[in-house]
Amino acid sequence: MYMAPWPTLVEMGQVGRNLPVAWLVDQLFSLGEFCGARQKMSAQQLEQTARLICQEYFYLKISELMLFFRRFKACRYGRFYGSVDPMVIMGALRDFMRERNDDIDRIEQGLRDELREINRRGVVSRDEYERSVAAGEEIPYHRDMTMKELINQKYKLTKWEQ
What we know:
This protein is an all-alpha fold. The protein is 64% helix and 0% strand.
């Protein structure tokens, strides 16, 4: 999910200036309808909350925000009592970010381990190298794969990600 080739809020804004805010307003409205609270957010609260999310979390991908709203609806980050509260939503987003960062750290560590193993293949020791040179054998060139190459290969990234 975190490596998915989706645009960020900033990139979405490059397509249409108000597009990220409008999209978030729809998500926030849907969240309010889903929870069944008696008092919904006003249009002004919806827009202010959407703008605040855009300003604070501009680097989040749409797919990550979709995951956040799904998890919120699954009651993973608390619930509303009587009214839809923008402060509860922002606090829940902060909790989501902690989870996201931990998940990304685990993914990146796995990628570093995988990259280390990939780059270890085909490498010759100093002794093997010296024997090959002495025997007049051709030494194949070994170039390490970069993290970006591994990520592009593993996740088939699109122009949004590269």
